[in-house]
Specification:
By secondary structure, the chain is of the alpha/beta class. 56% of the residues lie in helices and 12% in strands. Helix 1 (2-57) packs antiparallel against helix 5 (237-313), helix 2 runs parallel beside helix 3 and helix 4 (153-169) packs across helix 5 (237-313). It starts with a helix and ends with a helix.
Length: 314
Amino acid sequence: MANLKEIRNRIGSVKSTRKITSAMSRIAAARLRRAQNAMENARQYGTRMAGIVSEILQELDDPGAHHELLRRNSREKRVAIIVVTAERGLCGGFNSAVNRNVQRQVKALWKEDREVVLITIGRKGRDFLKSYDRQGRAKNIAHHAAPMKAEEVVEIAKAASLEAMALFHGQFEGDLRVGEVRLVYNYFRNVITQEVTNETLLPVPVPARPTDAEGVVIREPARPAVVQSIRAFEPDIGQLLNHLLPTAVETAVQQALYNSVASEVAARRSAMDSATDNATELIGELSLQYNRERQAAITKELMEIIGGAEALKG
């Protein structure tokens, strides 16, 4: 009977767990549509912003000469990585996939004798990477709580992008300076698929200009004088880039956070659905085991009764 009681208690425990995972799945499903809509709306803005920046930079023969956010400082070996994870677990491999990716990057940079500084957004990334301060060569210099909903994205993106640009300019606390800033996050492909994505945030990537087989830049053929137009910038290109490039950097971080929020909700929903299904399957197995044990106990009692009756007859 003790074994039957243990199985009965375990069935009750698994049923309680199933109630929790089922409720979490329903909550994630309710949040998913809002997060997905916010991400898709923001993605349209981000795509257009990136297109405008790309179009302007392709007009410049030497983009790096026009703004410091476009210049690559090859002498500065230090690299900053913005790591975007979640505040909580129970979302499958959402956090671990980002953490493993950053871990590989840090080890590769160490082999190149380069230092790494980390800006973490999300407690799971910070907790995993906090041990990577090896002789000051990998250090978490700033941490932000991950946005739990789309409304919190703008404020966190602004703070993280300002820190990234301060690092790139050498204006961070202690005159800390980096030659490159990377961004690692989960890209929302669809409800089932979220992909870990690496992007170069700074220097702002300059699109390659089309070239021929000999590497000579291909320029558009001149148009007839009647229809030929000359692109003019108002205000001048320097003032335009001063406003546009920081905005583009902040927008890129926003896109990463919107994608991360939607990816986290989708991953949690999938994980809780799987957990609920597994709990249901385990309850079925335990119920079958309980019935077998109970039947065996009843049969044993009947055999004892029959044996006692036969003994009395004798």
